[in-house]
Design brief:
209 residues; alpha+beta; Cyclic Phosphodiesterase, Chain: A; 4-stranded antiparallel beta sheet; 4 helices
Length: 209
């Protein structure tokens, strides 16, 4: 049986309020990662959309493409016990592999207006995975990242121009067989993949919403 770590151990103490905007820190989260072929195809689509809509936002490496699943937290230095608890939570999840296809794109409104891919096929299975992981994280004493609505997407780039919600003629997707614990290094354009957690729980699901 997995032991639940105490919140006092797992969660960093809150910084004192100095009245200044806090510096951004490294982020730890769970994510789905496209396979290299799918990542290359999404990167090609990104370039096509960038040219079509006259976007000028900076493009990051296709190796950084991901779908955020559950947040773990932000840290100056990630405590080893947080990583250990997160890996145990992820390993305890039972879910079947499923197919996921991205068929829409849109901009989220905001100062940076991220251009994102959205999916319908696989959404139900994806939501169930998110909820199962949230439950296991809670058992391990970790904040589950469910305080806001789960809006699964892949961010392509950030741009001030807002692109309307539109269906895609070219659709990308993959069979989700695992998920990753990711350590995003702030300001360095690098992700460290601390663990890959396979999906175990039955036959591959279509996951249609």
């Amino acid at each position: 049986m997995l032991r639940q770590l105490s919140l006092a151990l797992d969660l960093p103490s809150r910084r004192p309020d100095t009245g200044q905007k806090p510096a951004r820190r490294d982020v730890l989260y769970f994510a789905l990662l496209p396979d290299p072929v799918t990542a290359a195809s999404i990167a090609k689509l990104r370039q096509e959309l960038r040219a079509k809509y006259g976007l000028t936002g900076q493009v990051r490496s296709s190796e950084l493409l991901h779908l955020s699943l559950n947040g773990v937290g932000e840290f100056d230095a990630v405590p080893p016990q947080i990583i250990s608890a997160a890996v145990k939570a992820g390993a305890a999840v039972r879910a079947a592999p499923f197919e996921m296809t991205f068929d829409r794109m849109m901009s989220f409104r905001g100062k940076s207006a991220p251009l994102v891919l959205r999916c319908r096929d696989g959404l139900a299975a994806l939501t169930a995975l998110h909820q199962a992981l949230s439950a296991e994280m809670a058992r391990m004493g970790l904040r589950s990242g469910t305080r806001s609505a789960f809006t699964p997407h892949i961010t392509l780039l950030y741009d001030r121009k807002v692109v309307p919600h539109s269906p895609l003629d070219h659709r990308d997707g993959w069979t989700v067989r695992d998920f990753a614990l990711v350590h995003s290094l702030h300001g360095k354009g690098r992700h460290l993949y601390l663990a890959r957690l396979p999906l175990r729980g039955g036959h591959t699901s279509s996951g249609s919403a």
